[in-house]
Amino acid sequence: MDLVIRDATVIDGTATPAYRADVALDNGRIAAIHREGDGPRPTAHRTLDADGLALSPGFIDMHAHSDLALLRDPDHSAKAAQGVTLEVLGQDGLSYAPVDDRTLTAVRRTITGWNGDGSDIDFDWRTVGEYLDRLDRNFGGQGIAVNAAYLIPQGTVRMYAVGWDDRPATPAELARMKELVAQGMAEGAVGMSSGLTYTPGMYADDAELTELCRVVAAHGGYYCPHHRSYGAGALAAYEEMVELTRPRAPKGAGEAPFAGCALHLAHATMNFGVNKGKAPDLLALLDDALDAGADISLDTYPYTPGCTTLVAMLPSWAGEGGPESVLGRLADDATAERIRHHLEVLGSDGCHGVPIEWDTIEISGVGSPSLAGHVGRTVAESARLRGEAPWVTARRLLVEDRLGSTILQHVGHEENVRQIMRHRVHTGGSDGILQGDKPHPRAYGTFPQYLGRYVRELGVLTLEECVAHLTSRPAARLRLPDRGLVRVGYRADLVLFDPRTVAAGSTFETPRALPTGIPHVLIDGRPVIEDGKRTSVLAGKAVRGAGRA
To answer: Which helix (H) or strand (E) holds 521?
Structure first.
């Protein structure tokens, strides 16, 4: 054998009780699992003493924004040090494939706050398949830091085929979008994402989304929406997604065009004051659908604040036409006043139908160094320091930073977070934005935060339950037949951690601090983290979906 991990406490991803065993690896896979009393112990060229450590499958980040980070950063300790061995990219309906030259320029501008402007990246791909190939041949053909799967971004697809108009797609445009989705699925995507509070994806109606989801379902993929509201209309927005992907029409519904597509709810939570204590309402909705035969899962991050861009708060009509049109509207006093009224009085759809509270909007990153003084302050705090109204400060930030500012939005509820993470279809997703001077600590801390705070300190989940949430459940959603379990024949994507000490190092004050208590991480049996330090190994590859019709 290549390696034997001796005397590990194996938490195998099934949620069954842990057991003590030697685990032998060979040629990148688990070759043998030897429990006490099984006979002669396996031998290998190398031995790793795991006494006192838990051995689990590698963690799968079901909601990652590392689309460019994996191409620019061979270290990528933000995820590797957490024990993440696979990330799912292409989230929230906006990413970099499929594109043409026009669409690529626009999408780079649109999500600068998530991934940087990409000026350091050679965008030598246009299709989903070419992007996945680029991941595989990155860094001189070595690959990437961790494995990556990809969701086709519905907003980018609409940008490509329709543009930035707030209108229904024509039959020809819809046909083109379906072609792009089918091609992306055939080339290896695992599903499709949406950002239904982000332009231009939010301009799609349910009929359009249903047609696209049918294509996804035909290729064995799943639909992953950031749905239309996490605030005032949250429960209705969840119900809309459940109904849209329903496997069959309810009794008496006639020939309603249901998509029959697996559904995975992105960063599923209930935010803002209107939803305090309402997690049980969401869970009851999901349980009813699951009991009726729906295929649903969800992911969450174990924190209360959210993270996005400041421009995402604006009403959808302000985003029509793309980034330059947004800046033009902000430059016009009358239109800017209309935007303010929607934000502060009516509750814009970008802010989930809730009137914005500027003391909950903390600036976490800016593109322009001249604006660095705003980072770490809420918009309300910056406004008080300047002696002006919060909207005046926000408008200036949007214009001077060319829409590139990122924010933390402090609108979550701890009791909702805890109840949702207990659910039978829950998985973990960091939603980690790695850009900015003060990023959300979830980017560096989600998985040890689950294991340390919510398992060891609070007892919200048992260790075995939590590991299953972070490993086998997401692998099942991704339909990966050889990942997510410690089982003979499975890929040797493994994490060794100390249940007594594992903890997130990242905080809101020090968001890029690495976790503690995770000394070893292996991908395909190769050490990515060894004795708590990042190695030079690049063992990650693109993980392609089945693409089956």
So the answer is: strand 520-523
